[in-house]
Amino acid sequence: MSRRSRLPDSLRWRAVGWMEMELSQADAARRLNVSHSVVQRLWDQYQSEDSVSRRHVSGRPRVTTPAEDRFLVLSARRRSTTVPQLVADHFVASRRRISATTVRRRLHNAGLYARRPVVCAPSTDDREGPSYVGQENTFPGPDSNELLYSSQTSPDSHWRAIQGIC
Fold first, then answer.
1. Are residues 98 and 63 part of one domain?
2. Residue 43: which domain range?
């Protein structure tokens, strides 16, 4: 029975370099003395993840790649979209379905949190003059029931929204 040996990262990157210089996968496999399927999987991994490093991790495999995570975060930051819109955008871009819970987790990891836009009446303080509570934390949305994402949320605005206090 043959023993499987792991291809070092230096040779993995060398194979990617050869293929970027338009050398065929079969020629790269011959130069490395490995099967063409090894080089094909290596090339597929490089195109999808921008990496050729093997990670030995236990547990359930990730649904999204790091590149897809960056896409979700950038999409959420560019425009204040809802989670269902981000799920649809991801499907259009990658032709793979992911759950809304996965999108929420990825945005949480990037520091983006869900909130509802709160419009409050101005409150006055005798010492400081008029202050507009929560004004910087509101975004116009297509529907007031949809959650919007922003990195400008504060715990006070959430507490006021929960309590119904402006």
1. yes
2. 9-49
| Contact criterion met (CB below 8 Å) for 166 and 123 | yes
Instruction: Write the pLDDT tens digit of every residue in 99-130.
Output: 999 999 999 999 988 766 556 666 555 555 55
Do residue 64 and residue 99 come from a single domain? yes
Let me know if residue 133 belongs to a domain: no
Domain total of the chain: 2
- In this structure, the answer to whether residues 63 and 106 fall within a common structural domain is yes
Q: Which two tokens stand for residue 45?
A: 């991994």
Tokens encoding 32: 């490395």
Q: Average pLDDT of the chain?
A: 77
Which pTM was predicted?
0.40
Which residues in 47-151 belong to E strands, given as ranges?
A: 113-115, 123-125, 129-131, 148-150
Could you give the CA distance from residue 132 to residue 124 in angstroms, rounded to a whole number?
8
Q: Is residue 136 part of a domain?
A: no
pLDDT of residue 99: 94
CA distance 136 to 117: 10
